[in-house]
From TrEMBL:
Species, as recorded: Aceticella autotrophica
Designated name of the protein: Peptidase MA-like domain-containing protein
């Protein structure tokens, strides 16, 4: 695996989806999100703070040497991602730099052993210290920018804001990988092949977390890229707005393209 960048998205969103219907969720989720966000901010209130135009970086002493690089990378891609998805966050975005995976997992109540390079949750981006995954001798700046989690997690943040929590996990993962591709030409799962047929929409929607991880992310990327290739980023922007208004993804895709999403996914080459 070239890069370990499994974002743990939001079991909570899934739970909300089960409890509420889409419309209620797009109303209730932003409220819940603010409460949860404050709790996480409290956990790192003793961390040092650096500010840039659009970001707030929380970090510990051992990571002070990375702060400029993190800010530079985040700001460099800010407008590209914002313009692609058609939304600018109203507040500065917090990025927490965790010195150990243990601390990050604890603050996010992740299952032990599940070490993601970055996490997006409830309006906050968290990343592991570059010291934990970039080896001495590697080109720090280049590796962090191209393989690092910043563009990926920032995309999750914007998707979540526009769609108000109302989206399937595969769709936000696909969009995050699509943005990485558009920004850095980083192509997820290149060289990995499906043993069987590529995953269907139903599998992506219902079983994303239990499918083969590489291939599930690869399929999510292929499908979102195919949507942008055929219909353009403007259609993706419209779909995100529809989701934020409580429409589900299938309804929105049909409204914006006149095609059924199931058959569109089947038509995307694996
Ligand atoms: Zn992700």
């Amino acid at each position: 695996m070239k890069k370990k960048n499994i974002t743990i998205i939001i079991l909570l969103i899934f739970l909300f989806g089960l409890i509420f219907n889409n419309k209620l969720m797009s109303f209730a989720y932003p409220v819940y999100k603010n409460i949860a966000k404050t709790k996480i901010e409290n956990n790192v209130k003793n961390y040092k703070t650096a500010y840039s135009k659009h970001f707030i970086i929380k970090y510990t002493d051992s990571d002070s040497k990375y702060v400029d690089l993190i800010i530079e990378t985040a700001e460099k891609h800010y407008y590209d991602v914002v313009n692609d998805l058609g939304y600018m966050p109203t507040d500065k975005t917090m990025i927490i730099v965790y010195p150990t995976p243990y601390k990050m997992n604890r603050d996010f109540s992740l299952v032990k052993g599940d070490d993601a390079m970055g996490i997006y949750l409830v309006g906050i981006i968290s990343i592991q210290s570059p010291a934990l995954w970039i080896k001495p001798g590697q080109n720090l700046k280049e590796v962090f920018e191209k393989e690092g989690p910043v563009v990926h997690e920032f995309t999750h943040l914007i998707v979540d804001d526009i769609a108000k929590g109302n989206y399937p996990v595969w769709f936000t993962e696909g969009l995050a990988l699509l943005e990485e591709y558009r920004q850095d030409k980083y192509e997820w799962g290149e060289g990995y092949n499906y043993n069987d047929k590529p995953y269907t929409l139903k599998q992506l929607t219902d079983d994303f977390d239990t499918l083969d991880e590489m291939l599930a992310y690869k399929r999510a990327f292929q499908v979102t890229k195919a949507i942008s290739d055929k219909y353009g980023m403007s259609t993706i922007r419209s779909i995100l707005k529809d989701l934020g208004n409580g429409m589900n993804l299938k309804e929105s895709f049909y409204k914006e393209t006149g095609e059924e999403l199931d058959s569109f996914v089947l038509s995307v080459k694996g």
